[in-house]
Amino acid sequence: MQTPLKGTNASSALALLAGFSLAVASVLLPAQSSPAPSATPSGSAQAPGTTSTTTPNTIPAPPANPGIFPLSQIRPGMTGTAWTVFQGSVPEPMQVEILGILRSARGPGQDMILARLHGDKPEYTGVVEGMSGSPVYIDGKLAGSLSYRIGQFTKEPIAGITPIEQMLQVSNIPVRDIPASDIPVSDLPNQDVQTAKPAPGSSLDTNSAANQNPLAPGAMTFQPLDTPLVMSGFLPEAIRFWQQQTAGTSLSPVAAGGSLSGPSFDSLSAASGSSAPASSSPSSSSAEVPAIRALVPGSAVSMQLIRGDLEVSATCTVTWVDNLTNPTQLLACGHPVLGAGPVSMPMTTADVVVTLASPLNSFKIINTGVTIGAFTQDRESAIRGVFGAQAHMIPVHLSLDFPDGPRKLNVDVIDLPSITPLAVQVVLYDSLLQSNESSEAHSYHVTGSVDVAGFPPFPLDLWAPSGQPAPASMMAALLTGNQFTRLYSNGARQGVVRSVDLHVEAIPRQVAVTLDQAHIASTDIAHAGDTVEIEASLRPSHQPERNVRIAIKLPARLASGNLRLLVSDAATLDRTLNQPRLSASPDDLSTILAVARDQHAADRVYVSLLAPETQGELRGQTLPSLPLSVANALEPLRNTSDAGLNGESAEIVGEAPAGGVLTGFSILNLHIEPGGLN
Fold first, then answer.
1. H-helix or E-strand containing 571?
2. Structural domains in the chain plus CATH codes
């Protein structure tokens, strides 16, 4: 209840109070709305004796040509400015208060600067995924990059800073050839640089850092800021599949974001069956030059693991550019992303749609932009990108036949042993889910080839029947990935994988068929050269049993006596023709190719003679009915990885469609009477 002031009426008192309130607001609001403490436009504390030239219309930006602020001069209580993108593409400043140095916190000899962030945005969002690499300046000089955080649910924005001196070591690491690639991705100077052994997420060394560590000893540990992983075009099931396979890395899947630039040149060329080679000398197209020059320390930058009709990209922040006028390389992140060492990944600009605050994990939602080069190093202290370089990618072409119509999908995937097989699997898995006709009742038949330089195409022929414990779509992806891995990860491979071509037929029913029994329909006594009829009873899944008759002609060379017949599926036949054996070393690519080319179709039933003759196997090829002299020559190589011998020779004499993926076998006995055809 208001009481009128003495000597005034009620309206006058209210007017006086309103005027007093406005006067107070005019004094307090500017102070409350201004950042505390403030940051200079250069992103650092001004040097003594200098005057700021910033006007109200000047857009703050990181220092254009900063020197290096050495780690040896870092002291608790110092203040500086960090730059990062919270929205859009323009970096924004936030003040940094140095708390101390954690000695060997990132590994032996790898120190970390501990800091507290100040400002409305960092104090609201905390330390954000995607902020990795945000440059920190002290007195106008570059000190390092925000790269680490401590625990989760922390109430203060405490961050770990990777010293710039350790990051710059990455800029001088010699670029070696990418594994399994004969094309280097850069012609940077070859210099020998020693780097520390990676130890991301190592615990705080409270003993050696006791004098400068403001945190009490405890179970909290620093870990690299997760790298936001934009998976554009992927369904939640495919994202979960990726998460399960990448557990333990710094890649944090975020199912939000996309591509601003659309399909890249390399992705479009992949659709035509060609792949742009990695360039050994950086060069930039006219379209890339403006994007390159707009990239400054504090800008967001993305690396693409998959690009094209689907995209997987990881994003962090640029820490250092060697020359803003004519840049050739940059450093970003301040920690490893994949920890792969030498890499070849497309480097693109990035636009931050929004920074999402979360008590658990704040992160940036990002769209990738224009390709501006390639990342060539993924090291403990930083990742390095080379402007204008072209990354070597593996084109993957998919042709899908679904009941609702055919579809095509073309992507390029990273050429890296730890990621490439997974990338092929997740692309195939997602493509099988992206149809209104997709269901658990569908079975899948995957055919195609893998083109490896120096070899004929490796054929693929795989079935994933429905009705199994795992979804058929996932089984199709896993089986295809397993076959691809045998080729891609084979130690004998020297040439690059030039392309992967897959055709998938979706069958809206269960395709499993069981061989119940088989018998000789005519007579179990015959002569060499006779025709004998075999009847097999097949039971399709959830359907009535049906009989299949196969007429076989016995070879004229057969001697009198008992003869065994094998009625079987393709897997049993292949094991009989190329029997598994112990080997001191894995098969080379030539052997794998020979075995793959001789594999039989899984949707047929086969009848084979098991003659009492020597059968040889040489580098994946079956040699039936060997003469004794040849068998003696192969005997020294028996049971090695190159050759094998078996006392019974298998020879296919008949086959018929099974109406689905057949499993099972049966052995029949046939007596050969003398006096047959010669």
1. helix 570-577
2. 62-391 (no CATH), 395-507 (3.10.20), 512-673 (no CATH)
